What we know:
By secondary structure, this protein is an alpha+beta fold. Helix content is 25%, strand content 31%.
Amino acid sequence: MSAAVGIIANPASGKDIRRLVAHGSVFDNNEKINIIERVLLGLDALGTERVLAMPDIAGLARHARDRAKIRLAVELLDFPLKNKADDSTRAARLMAEAGVGCIVTLGGDGTNRAVAKGCGYVPLVPISTGTNNAFPVMIEGTLAGLAAAVVARRVPGVREAGVRLARRLDVYRDDTFIDFALVDVVAYAERFAGSGAMWDPAKIKAVVLSAPHPGTIGASAIGGYLPTAPTNGEQGMWLELGPGGQQILAPIAPGLVTRLSIQSWRWLHVGERDTLNHAPAVLALDGERELPIKPGERIEIGLSQNGPHVVNVAAALAAASRAGVFVTGKEVSANNE
């Protein structure tokens, strides 16, 4: 029997305040339904028999299930919705407890952070449908479904070639772990979380990255556009911003390319943690303002290798191809003529 696969789709991703203060387009729910439908078709093509899906107020998975002509069973988890990130965390935890072999996510960095809090060792296939997308990737849903199927089935060689352990940024208050981010932690000069999103570049005081990302939108791009940053993707980065520093241009939101002053920066190694000296402020985790910090509190941020397992779709499919997963009927031989 083929292992089960989970699907967690965030109906709120791609619709936050950055659509108003920047120039981002809205990622509508109908397109998310289309993506989920293609994921289901990919899963069904490789014989996946069972899918567990997170329920949501928009009925994304339910609509996709009803539209797709598939043999596999799609079951909606049964739990009371809060219409918050906690829904994704709880769904991931229930899926892991049910023994799914892979979870497909639709959302941005924040959605995947919520899923990572509950998925344990279950690998993720993160499809980008959010605003800040340094963690998930733009991938065709059919391919995501095929990759999730071969990972869940534990096809020989697929996990070794196509699954990696992601890093994360751990946040400590007075030496006690309180939360983590997958991509970036930002000290933002506000006292309250407010709308959650960051949109005023002048209020960004420090940025800590799990890795510099020159090809993304958001705080992770700030470090990625320094001249030497793209040369070392195996380490994190700590940046201090303020007047009188090196000037760079960075795309911190869709259509919003702004000039920022970098006073100093350094590499952050796995296992290392340092003190953040900005208070009062609010810490934004993966683009969402969440943690107010007060004067006198000791806030430390460390880089760890304790992030979720993530599927590289192309590598997983290549490994599955080498294992003969896609060969049906008559044996195929090489023809060099």
